[in-house]
Design goal:
The chain has a two-stranded antiparallel sheet. With 193 residues, the chain is mainly alpha-helical. The chain has a domain of 134 residues: Tetracycline Repressor, domain 2. The protein starts with 8 loop residues before the first helix and ends with a helix. The chain is built from nine helices and two strands; from the N terminus they run αααααββαααα.
Length: 193
């Protein structure tokens, strides 16, 4: 008879995600993960196979929670400029967690791992595709309603806005103050309008 788990995997995954988000993959030790989750080594490895398996699951969890929150802000009805401003302000807010100015976990992963970790690289690319498709859908709505020109290239603008999300993450992680980041957001919005 299989032993029942003595912890909630989703709760442990959320705590592990925050540990990786704060310190990165390489600087987060197994001991850090045990302390963060309250789950012993055997429990973590039973549930996630390895530190790398836990990390990949944490990237998926980030997409399902943090990124989903960004997409939800973007989907709120209203004028496109307000929608985009609220979304990018939401990104700024989400990049500053109780753990500090941690930036974007996907962006941090792109810098740290994607040159030699194909699984992590695929997660980052899929994350970018999700953001791009969400921005593109919202921009297409704005084109249909006449808020922005139908001649605007919605695909290129969506790619630009996705890059802006990652830039906000980098700026926050590198310690730029909110006023600096907000000037960047204002510049981004001036191009879309």
């Amino acid at each position: 008879m299989a032993r029942s788990r003595e912890f909630e995997p989703e709760e442990a995954l959320d705590k592990a995600m925050h540990a990786f988000w704060r310190k990165g993959y390489f600087d987060t030790s197994i001991r850090d993960l045990i302390e963060a989750t309250g789950v012993n080594y055997y429990g973590l490895y039973d549930a996630f196979d390895s530190k790398h398996g836990l990390f990949l699951a944490a990237l998926d969890h980030y997409r399902k929670t943090v990124t989903a929150e960004i997409v939800e802000i973007l989907r709120q009805p209203g004028p496109i400029q307000k929608s985009l401003n609220d979304t990018l302000e939401g990104v700024l807010k989400l990049m500053k967690t109780a753990d500090g100015r941690v930036g974007c976990l996907m962006c941090n992963t792109a810098v740290e791992l994607t040159s030699h970790d194909t699984d992590a690289a695929e997660k980052v690319r899929n994350h970018a595709k999700l953001l791009q498709s969400s921005f593109r859908a919202r921009l297409s709505e704005a084109q249909s309603s006449g808020e922005i020109s139908k001649t605007s290239n919605a695909k290129a603008l969506a790619e630009f806005l996705t890059t802006a999300v990652y830039t906000i993450g980098l700026l926050v992680r590198s310690g730029h103050d909110d006023a600096y980041v907000r000037r960047h957001i204002k510049s981004v919005l001036s191009i879309v309008g």
